[in-house]
C-alpha cells in the first residue's frame, strides 16, 4: 500500500528547518545551509551534485533511502522558489534546480495562485495546486500509481501534513547547530505520542536520525 513519507528533513537543535531572511540569494536563510552539509558529505549527496566519492556510513544509507519507491512529491511554494504573490509572466520562475530537476516524476506545488503545469527535462512536471493539502495529496497519490508520495518541504508544508495525521513515516534529522531564528517545523504541540511514535533513533558523528511512524 502506498505511503506518505517525509524523509531526510533536517532541523537545528533549536527546531528550525531554515534560517531567517530567506530570499533568492539565500534560499535557506541565514545559516540554513549548515543544516544540509551532512548530506553533501555522503556518497548520495555528492552524486546529486554530479561528484564522485563521499562517505558510505549510516548517514548515506539512511538519506539514500529518500528516493526509494517515490512516485510523486508535494512541496510548498516557498520551497519551489522565492516568488511571492501572483506568478510573473515576463520572467517565469521554474524552480531552483535548473532545466533538469532531480525529481523525475510529478511534483505538486501548494500555492494560492493558479498556474499551468511546467514540464521540465528528465520527466519532472511541476503542477500547481491552489485547493489545499488534501487535494494535492489526492492528485499526488493518483500520479504515483501505487508508489509512495514524498512530502518534500518546506517546514510549513510538512507541519500541515503532520498535524493532519496524513504522514505515515517521517525521517527527521537533528543537526548540531543553533540558528536562533527562522522557520520552525513545530510551532505548537500539534502532534504527540498518540499520533506518532519514534521507531528508530540513530546517532552518528554528524547528526541524529529519528524515524517516526503514525500510530
Determine the strand fraction and express it as a percent band. Answer: 25-35%
CATH class identity: Alpha Beta
Structural class: alpha/beta
Tell me the number of helical segments per DSSP (H or I, 4 or more residues long).
5
Tell me the major beta sheet.
9 strands, mixed
Please name the CATH topology.
Dihydrofolate Reductase, subunit A
Terminal CA distance: 16 Å
Helicity, as a percent range: 10-25%
Write out the CATH superfamily name. Dihydrofolate Reductase, subunit A
Q: How many DSSP E strands? A: 11
Short summary:
The chain is built from 5 helices and 11 strands; from the N terminus they run ββααβαβββαβαββββ.
Describe this entry's structure for a reader.
With 215 residues, the protein is of the alpha/beta class. It has a single domain (4-83, 100-214), classed as Dihydrofolate Reductase, subunit A, CATH 3.40.430.10. The chain is 18% helix and 28% strand. The strands form 2 sheets. Strands 5-6-4-3-7-1-8-11-10 form a 9-stranded mixed beta sheet, sandwiched between helices.
Secondary-structure topology with pairs:
Blueprint: E1 4-12, E2 16-18, H1 43-48, H2 58-64, E3 70-76, H3 77-80, E4 106-110, E5 118-119, E6 125-129, H4 133-144, E7 148-153, H5 155-163, E8 169-175, E9 183-184, E10 196-203, E11 208-214
Amino acid at each position: 500500500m502506498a505511503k506518505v513519507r517525509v524523509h531526510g528533513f533536517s532541523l537545528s537543535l533549536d527546531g528550525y528547518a531554515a534560517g531567517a531572511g530567506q530570499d533568492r540569494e539565500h534560499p535557506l536563510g541565514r545559516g540554513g545551509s549548515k543544516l544540509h552539509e551532512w548530506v553533501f558529505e555522503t556518497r548520495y549527496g555528492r552524486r546529486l551534485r554530479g561528484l564522485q566519492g563521499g562517505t558510505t556510513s549510516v548517514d548515506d544509507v539512511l538519506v539514500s533511502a529518500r528516493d526509494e519507491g517515490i512516485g510523486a512529491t508535494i512541496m510548498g511554494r516557498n520551497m519551489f522558489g522565492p516568488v511571492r504573490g501572483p506568478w510573473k509572466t515576463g520572467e517565469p520562475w521554474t524552480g531552483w534546480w535548473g532545466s533538469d530537476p532531480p525529481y523525475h516524476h510529478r511534483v505538486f506545488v501548494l500555492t494560492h495562485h493558479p498556474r499551468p503545469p511546467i514540464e521540465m527535462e528528465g520527466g519532472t512536471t511541476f503542477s500547481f495546486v491552489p485547493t489545499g493539502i488534501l487535494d494535492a495529496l489526492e492528485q499526488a497519490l493518483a500520479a504515483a500509481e501505487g508508489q509512495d508520495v514524498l512530502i518534500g518541504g518546506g517546514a510549513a508544508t510538512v507541519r500541515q501534513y503532520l498535524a493532519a495525521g496524513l504522514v505515515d513515516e517521517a525521517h527527521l534529522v537533528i543537526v548540531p547547530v543553533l540558528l536562533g531564528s527562522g522557520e520552525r517545523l513545530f510551532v505548537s504541540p500539534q502532534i504527540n505520542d498518540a499520533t506518532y511514535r519514534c521507531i528508530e533513533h540513530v546517532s552518528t558523528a554528524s547528526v541524529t536520525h529519528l524515524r517516526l511512524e503514525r500510530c
